[in-house]
Amino acid sequence: MQNKQEQMSHNRLSVGIAGLNEVIGGGLIPQRSYLVRGGPGTGKTTLGFHFLTAGVEVGEKPLFITLGEPEAQLRANAQWLGFDVAAMPFLDLSPSSEFFTEVQTYDIFSASEVEREPTTQKIIEQVQAVKPQRVFLDAITQFRYLAADEFQFRKQVLSFLRFLVEGGATVVFTSEGTASAPDDDLQFISDGVIYLELLPEGRSLSVTKFRGSNFRDGRHSLRLTDAGMEVFPRLLPESYQQDFVPEAISSGIPEMDELLHGGLERGTVTLISGPSGVGKTTVGVQFMKEAAGRGERSVVYVFEESVSTLLRRCEAVNIPVNAMLKQGTLSLVPVEPLLYSPDHFARMVRREVEEQQTRIVMLDSISGYQLSMRGQNLVNNLHALCKYLTNMGVTVLLINEVETIAGDFRMTEIGISYLADNIVFMRYLECHLHNRTEIRKAIGTMKKRVSNFEKTLREFDITRYGIKVSKPIAGLRGILSAAPVWSDGVADED
Prior knowledge:
With about 500 residues, the protein is of the alpha/beta class. The chain is built from 16 helices and 22 strands. The strands form three sheets. Strands 12, 13, 14, 15, 16, 17, 18, 19, 20, 21 and 22 form an eleven-stranded mixed β-sheet that branches. The protein has a nine-stranded mixed β-sheet with strand order 3-2-4-5-1-6-7-8-9, with helices on both faces. It starts with a helix and ends with a helix.
């Protein structure tokens, strides 16, 4: 059985869209027929251009049969999208303007009685002349008007598809199903069904049927660009695995490593949580600075602040990010969340990990990533992404901003703490010094799954010489309260 599947996977026809090939297990099975369904503007014809031009690239003969849009318009659209269709044969069966301007005597008769025979003859002649190996037909539902009833339509379509397949062609055809004339019958007839949708949360593609092969189910994001269609398969973390040593990685700051009992382990997820301005991103980049010294590559996906601002902040505290960028040990990737779906972003991360061998990935921040959800479930998508990364031995840093500077102590306000193997929290402290009060910063660990950790807080400061972490703070009251404070006595001793 396995040998049969391997043989079939090697004998696939590329659709010309890498993400779609991945969804359907490598490509289409030759000499079968596949239905592409969806509403107007969902990209059915664009998918057809990809399918036909991918065949041309490997020396296969294509044929585009159109029953709706005229050939000249299709060629113009293809050229605008960058598809080379100059030598591609088209069979244009769309109605011409003369059909309207010339009075046709058969207007009072059934169209199926008058039109079916010449249409069929044109198709036969073109197929015999071209001998295509790939055929795209847009849209087969036009045949309904050439059939006397539903039974005749189904029989005619089956016969037509068999004629093409037995001639050595792989066929992709589209439908224009409506509430009054659904395309359920075409779904039964075809060997595979690809469904394109335009939803409030964005465009998506799903495969609901694929005879003779497994496929990746569920909705997958897609986008239409001036270069055609891109498909971003839904991330299945269980499909990816890489051997790695689960060793602890150092921050380069001895006191912080003491707090974490050695550092953060590879292949774990760390949630760095705290209010705005407390230094969460700086702590994350500090681990990357130490990794760069070992020759390892890290990446920061910046969802909120600009990359230039992050560069200036890091350089100002003695973290040489510009040198790291030049050496290739760091990448700073600005992400406009409203332009990316979760699947699109996951593919970006996969390329970074699999092609660049990146060892630390930081999302700055979770609230920015959440904007790309477009109504989808944040926890599900973040879980899949983090699980994939940890399976690949990547250390994940999630920057989480809590809204309150002073108030009830919370790790996260969006219910994702279960995802984290480690939780590092940072907060502001009130410090009473004689007759004045100061605001200071503290860092602590709340959770570590794979090792023990220090159950105290340490004072934390960011200076022009780098990050400074103190010895454990003594005499601190109300660590988990709304406003932890140092007593006057302890502060005076400091």
